[in-house]
């Protein structure tokens, strides 16, 4: 177990049935963590769990609505009681929202959808896990953002504000929880399209923008769009995101907190 990044650690992943959450859950389990994945769709959680089981990892699933604060806190209490505490928590929850509509045609409801959805779920999950972390055993809370937090591009008002909010939330939470020996690190990847699990959400999210440019979603992301706007001329892979998350969650990254891990392939240069 000594050679594993996350040996003997417990990790809770909200949105664990999704593309990014599922990929990270598998790498966490491979690196020795006991993984607890939670989400709204049991079938997706089961699919991730089968992959982890097949490689001999430790995984448990729970159908939890991250917008139900009481249910999330009850689940966190159960995980902590089962594992003796929570060492790592990741919020990988996705909220479908508008991209491509300019201010003149954007409704208040669509503007607020990602802001309320992403930030409310982040608040609820962080509040639930924090009491079970830190002190004599270091704790880590990982969050996810997007390059939209800093891009000056039309048509992503709600998306951009929510991403910037997640990064600000992470920085301030890091300051609050540092005395309790809990680190908070935000991961900022770009769009990811290299796994079937990412399909429907990605296609739905960028369909309007792609149509306005006269492109398919795949062309927008890879051929002449987002990928070409990065320094590496490609988008990050699920594997790269998951491997980075495992490192950040490990004791090897013990001095990192209150910061953003930029995995945008150079779409943003900090």
UniProtKB/TrEMBL annotation:
Keyword entries, A-Z: Oxidoreductase
What InterPro entries does the record tag this protein with? NAD(P)-bd_dom_sf, SDR_fam
Q: Does the keyword Oxidoreductase apply?
A: yes
A Pfam family annotated for this chain is adh_short_C2
Q: Please, which domain of life does this record's source organism belong to?
A: Bacteria
Keyword Oxidoreductase attached: yes
Q: Which Gene3D superfamilies match?
A: NAD(P)-binding Rossmann-like Domain
What the record says about family reads: Belongs to the short-chain dehydrogenases/reductases (SDR) family.
Name of the molecule in the record: SDR family oxidoreductase
